[in-house]
Specification:
This protein is α+β, with helices and mostly antiparallel strands. 51% of the residues lie in helices and 14% in strands. The chain has 17 helices and 13 strands. Strand 3 and strand 4 form a beta hairpin. 44% of the residues are buried.
């Protein structure tokens, strides 16, 4: 999966849009970065900017934005209602897809170090990126704000994690962090009562409600030994919630901030509110996602609701998203367009169309054209993807075959495995073409001087090695598909056994075709250690694949006899 992170820097300027534009121009100047939102606030004199991309791209865009802010925002003249201590006040990185929090923390530290050393701003790391426990909480790190920063920096206990321990009046300090994705999520109720909506919100939010003596609403507030109200925790961790009435829609809502969707995902929050509402005689009618959501959050929700129905979860992403939308009523107040609401789909908008985006007819015609791409490598990968898809189809059909209800999880697991294989092979369709184009680009490099010749030679070798690795990966991925096809031929829906057989044949054709591409690309590099290894392993895999294909076809033919 492609690595995607989000960055949500807060800049201490909310009135002068020319200043904000100059900062966001720096962000948009980095190729591959997608600017998602710019939210200025006059009262707070603060602007929240959201952008996404690959880790390296986001790091560069964040650095350039912080650098520009340090040049055009003067903190000595700043005032606003929101706590702040720097021109770029906070700069959190958020893992979206294909990347762990641990990896994101490393990027946050790299960004913090670069800001401190190259721009000369005192940098504190917070949340998951904190280098000490007492600096984990942003409020603690920012205590004293800009006005108390000079004194704070003079205290050895508050030496910055990166950058100078000196007060810079113009820029102040910056907090760089890594945190989980925050989702703003509203759940609609069939009531107009804000009080009842708040009751539900207090049931589920982590903070819960104030403990009272006797009557839970009018009773005397119970206080602890410090004189502070005792709280009864709610049922959901990492959730903030409140009830309110939305005049525009004429209904009350539970307005929630899910501050860590790995702890409390969207679908869990939805179901928990449903339970609380039902206990109060209120019904949930739908919900809405405010802003963007990671793809995986929607896929998890789709799988969750399918499992509740005892249906296979190894279906397409589009089907999982559809199930999630309908199950949570995300389209009640307006259309839910995945291409507008899902971060990864937003990122794809700026990308060109690939081979896998073509119709079957267009792909065939492009293959038959005078262009050398797509060639046998891409076609082989596509054959493998279709073969794995057939095996996945048999698993999905088997999961809801009449009389096999107690086996739905078994076949759902097979379908999930088949889906993963077909999706990876589909990615390799375009990767094979890109690998060929990289070779052509390397051969086109200048070669007049000795230095240029060495650079060209190294580029050709690297591109050729990659062009061998891609079909080799295709072979291995397709081979993994035999396990699914074989299982479906043996234990799957007998009415679809021929489909499992055709799937095995397509997987075998994929492997043979990819092997031809490995060999032709290896001609001029056959003494390279990695190429020698791939040629040896590829030859062995070919023979094993032939045996696996024959075994599956034998199983299929036996079913015809029986």
């Amino acid at each position: 999966m492609k690595q995607v992170i989000e960055c949500v820097p807060n800049f201490s300027e909310g009135e002068d849009m020319e200043v904000i534009r100059r900062i966001t121009d720096q962000i948009e100047s980095v190729e591959g970065v997608k600017l998602l939102d710019v939210d200025p606030g006059r009262a707070t004199n603060r602007t929240v900017v959201t952008f996404v991309g690959s880790p390296e791209q986001v790091m560069e865009a964040a650095f350039q934005a912080v650098k520009m802010a340090s040049e055009i925002i003067d903190m000595s003249r700043h005032s606003g209602e929101h706590p702040r201590f720097g021109a770029t006040d906070v700069c959190p990185l958020v893992p979206v897809s294909g990347i762990s929090m641990e990896e994101t923390v490393k990027y946050a530290h790299q960004l913090a170090e670069r800001i401190g050393s190259e721009i000369g701003i005192p940098v504190y790391c917070y949340e998951n990126a904190a280098l000490s426990e007492k600096r984990k909480n942003l409020a603690t790190v920012r205590s004293g704000e800009y006005e108390g920063l000079k004194e704070k920096l003079a205290n050895p206990e508050w030496k910055p994690d990166f950058g100078p321990a000196e007060f810079v009046p113009r820029t102040g300090a910056i907090a760089v962090g890594a945190r989980d994705f925050l989702v703003a999520y509203n759940i609609n109720l069939n009531t107009t009562s804000t009080r009842r909506a708040n009751g539900i919100a207090f049931d589920v939010r982590e903070r819960g409600r104030t403990k009272r003596e006797g009557d839970p609403i009018t009773g005397k507030i119970v206080k602890n030994s410090d004189g502070k109200p005792v709280m009864i925790p709610g049922s959901l961790k990492e959730v903030k919630a409140i009830g309110w009435f939305i005049k525009e829609y004429g209904v009350a809502q539970i307005s929630m901030n899910l501050t860590n969707i790995s702890v409390t995902p969207v679908h869990v929050a939805f179901d928990e509110v449903c339970k609380s509402a039902d206990s109060r005689g209120i019904r949930v009618t739908g919900s809405e996602l405010v802003g963007l959501v990671p793809l995986n959050a929607m896929l998890e929700a789709g799988r969750y609701f399918l499992k509740k129905q005892k249906r296979s979860t190894g279906v397409s992403d589009s089907e999982l998203i559809k199930i999630a939308v309908k199950s949570m009523g995300l389209d009640e107040l307006g259309p839910f367009d995945p291409h507008e609401k899902i971060i990864e789909y937003q990122l794809k908008k700026g990308e060109g169309k690939g081979l896998v985006d073509m119709t079957l007819a267009a792909f065939m015609e492009e293959t038959a054209s005078e262009s050398p791409t797509p060639g046998g490598g891409s076609v082989s990968a596509y054959m493998g993807a279709v073969g794995a898809a057939l095996a996945t189809m048999v698993a999905n059909l088997s999961s809801h075959k009449r009389g096999w209800d107690d086996r739905w999880e078994e076949f759902s697991e097979w379908a999930e495995r088949g889906k993963a294989i077909q999706e990876r092979l589909l990615q390799l369709v375009d990767e094979d073409t890109r690998a060929f184009n990289d070779i052509m680009a390397a051969f086109g490099l200048p070669k007049k001087s000795a230095g240029e010749q060495e650079t060209r030679k190294a580029a050709i070798e690297a591109a050729t090695l990659h062009a061998i690795e891609v079909p080799f990966d295709v072979m291995n991925m397709a081979y993994a598909g035999f396990e699914v096809a074989g299982a479906m031929a043996e234990t799957g829906n007998p009415n679809s056994v021929s489909d499992a057989g055709v799937g095995a044949l397509a997987l075998h054709a994929c492997i043979e075709g990819a092997w031809l591409n490995v060999k032709i690309n290896a001609i001029d590099l056959n003494e390279h250690p990695e190429v020698v290894r791939m040629l040896q392993e590829g030859e062995e895999l070919r023979h094993r694949a032939s045996s696996r294909k024959s075994a599956v076809i034998d199983l299929v033919n036996q079913k015809f006899i029986s």
